[in-house]
Design goal:
Layout (H helix, E strand, L loop, with lengths): L1 E6 L4 H11 L3 E6 L23 E4 L2 E4 L1 H11 L12 H30 L4 H22 L12 H15 L8 H11 L2 H10 L8
């Protein structure tokens, strides 16, 4: 059975969600962040050298990185329904958003979080990064248009991958009135039964707000 080394309030929530969408049996190995530093506990380093979550173990295989985990699960668990057909525009959009979520969107959100802890000395840079985040959110808003999901009418694993940075930004007040489609998209994801089941099993999730 697949083990999900699950850290509270982390990217591993979307791994639980995908497993629920796939109907794949799994076991949660829970970890809690340090209440002061909010860092992962050192015990995670016994699973993967970087000591980060998500990490899954499937037999002898230990896999880290959300995108790599999602691709592995889709290929091994028969998740073709969550990937558009290859050699289509929808597939190229899917591939883009799968990489964009962590490669382009998440870094400025994390930088803003760290700068917020510095306070006034970091204000100029904080404001600049905030503007960058708004540029990204407006970009996604426009890409969604009237579509229910990020690649069009089909729910895909790209929606799962993109969910965490949007939830993270929503939880920190980054989503504005100028991004109504993003809010509707997030609500649509939260209404999926598999999302609810993952939340029940994974425990409280601070960023999952509506």
């Amino acid at each position: 059975m697949i083990e999900v080394h699950h850290l509270n309030n982390s990217r591993s929530q979307r791994v639980l969600w995908l497993l629920e969408e796939l109907g794949t049996p799994y076991r949660i190995v829970p970890y809690a962040r340090d209440a002061k530093t909010m860092l992962a506990p050192p015990e995670l380093k016994a699973v993967h050298a970087l000591g980060k979550s998500p990490v899954i173990r499937d037999g002898e295989q230990v896999i880290a990185e959300s995108g790599a985990i999602i691709e592995y699960l889709l290929e091994k668990q028969g998740g073709a329904q969550f990937v558009p057909p290859k050699n289509t525009a929808a597939f190229e959009s899917y591939r883009y958003w799968m990489h964009y979520a962590e490669g382009s969107l998440m870094p400025p959100m994390l930088i803003k979080l760290y700068l917020s802890r510095i306070g006034e000395p970091a204000k100029a840079l904080f404001d600049r990064v905030t503007a960058q985040i708004q540029m990204h959110l407006n970009f996604i808003e426009n890409a969604l248009g009237s579509n229910p999901f990020i690649t069009g009418t089909q729910f895909t694993a790209a929606d799962v991958q993109l969910s965490f940075p949007i939830e993270f930004g929503f939880g920190r007040g980054d989503l504005q009135d100028a991004q109504p489609q993003l809010r509707k998209w997030l609500q649509r994801l939260h209404q999926r039964p598999a999302y609810g089941r993952a939340l029940e099993k994974g425990g409280p999730y601070a960023y999952a707000k509506d």
